[in-house]
């Protein structure tokens, strides 16, 4: 009960100081507020980016590997000349992989071409992407259909002119009408719509199907040169659920080297890309941003700590006679010490709450102006309050210690 009473008195003294010296206290709290605001805003933004990135990775599949000509690597020493002469993934590679791979739930050969136009009667939608894939596309890609159905085996094998379209395309061409069963024109051919993808919205990896048309790869053979580099041919492999990604990658690498008849001392002439490569590169960038947030916010908090210490020294000076009376009535040194430390903590928590409020308001403003919604998580709120408590304890200790060491007689005389 004494501790609770002590905390209550400390809060009361803190708010008395704030009420009596509003300008002085608010200017001193400003640095704490700015410091907490910078750190928590950076952390909240990074956490939101990471969450959206992870959602994009989950949509692609954390156990998915892409066989491509070019690797997904970054840096100044990117040896592009080494990869320029590599062959593109071929239909032969795809068919052989289907026969030999044991730890795969699905394998697809895919191509894509962008900036195309789809037409229906007098209406059209421009700037769409057209992708062609083999039958297992529904096993290597996570998607849902809001209406219609997926390709049948016969449609994929025979190259039937059918397609799946994105939700934005369906809205642009058909409005409120049902698209399934309608014939659209794409790549100079008439194609029947058999399904519509559920609307997804843009994600961080740009993998939305909203403005995409998907056709069978055997149908695309009669329209496009599917081995041409301009159409970005790739083979997508979804590993079995009970098998680790490393094991799937190891088997896939061995099979691909066997298909291409590479000797043991020869380098791979293909790239095995994973979504974890992108997320790891972005995590490094986020770590740098976090450090920058700590550095910028840390300087502000350091200045704020000195300001709080200054306030507490002034507070001790103003209440010296009260401290003398308390000690003459039997108050222990720890009681005086904790009283001023709790007061410093109270002031810092107030500054921290103001900083968190600024983060919340700015996040709401950004969400209202753009489609990017920054989430102020509970962990970051706890972190902000925790930093405030630590700074309050450190900056209030020495003034509190000096107050606890005052001689009661001399203190009452002052």
Describe this entry's structure for a reader:
It is built from 14 helices and ten strands. By secondary structure, it is an alpha+beta fold. The chain folds into two domains: 2-56 and 280-413, no CATH class; 87-269, no CATH class. The protein has a six-stranded mixed beta barrel with strand order 2-3-8-5-7-6. Strand 2 (104-120) and strand 3 (123-133) form a beta hairpin. Helix 10 (275-318) crosses helix 12 (333-369) and helix 12 (333-369) runs antiparallel to helix 13.
- Stretches where pLDDT falls below 50 for ≥5 residues? none
Number of domains: 2
Profile the largest sheet.
6 strands, mixed, barrel
Q: In angstroms, what is the radius of gyration?
A: 32 Å
Which range best describes the helical content: under 10%, 10-25%, 25-40%, 40-55%, 55-70% or over 70%? 55-70%
Q: N-to-C SSE series?
A: HHEHHEEHEHEHEEEHEHEHHHHH
User: Could you tell me how far the N terminus lies from the C terminus, measured between alpha carbons in angstroms?
Assistant: 31 Å
Structural class: alpha+beta
* Main sheet strand line-up: 2-3-8-5-7-6
Q: Indicate the proportion of strand residues.
A: 15-25%
* Overall pLDDT metric: 84
How many β-strands, per DSSP?
10
If helices are DSSP runs of H or I spanning 4 or more residues, what is the number of helices? 14
The geometry reads as elongated
Membrane topology: Multi-pass membrane protein
Keywords: Cell membrane, Membrane, Transmembrane, Transmembrane helix
GO cellular component, one term: plasma membrane
Protein name: ABC transporter permease
